[in-house]
What does this fold into?
Amino acid sequence: MWLSKRIMHEAPEEDAATLGTVTIGGDDAAVLTDAEKRSAKIISPGGYCWQPSAKDCVLIVKGNELYLSGRLQEDAKGLAAGEVRVFSNGSSVTLRNSGKVEIGGDVYIDGDLFVHGTKLEGP
It folds into this structure.
């Protein structure tokens, strides 16, 4: 009985999720946890695409394969509960609870622009 309990406890359980550091960003991401893992699949919320950058601290979900599922929030200052900010290194869009949309960066429109249902004509 003592021997069977000892054998059962010798193999440590692996955590289902952990934090890791991205070592290679982009489509073919690599991440460092206990060892560097390559070709991690990237998971983002619906309607949102994200490419990890090297040195990002990310959540790793382990299973049959390795999944990068997001990074620690570093740009949440000034957001109230329920507000959303989508950002990159050079631009951002913030959706406020008041209905206000704040855009940081240059804006390029590919298509028609309507304001209160009226189409605005370009130059």
Observations:
- The mean pLDDT is 83.
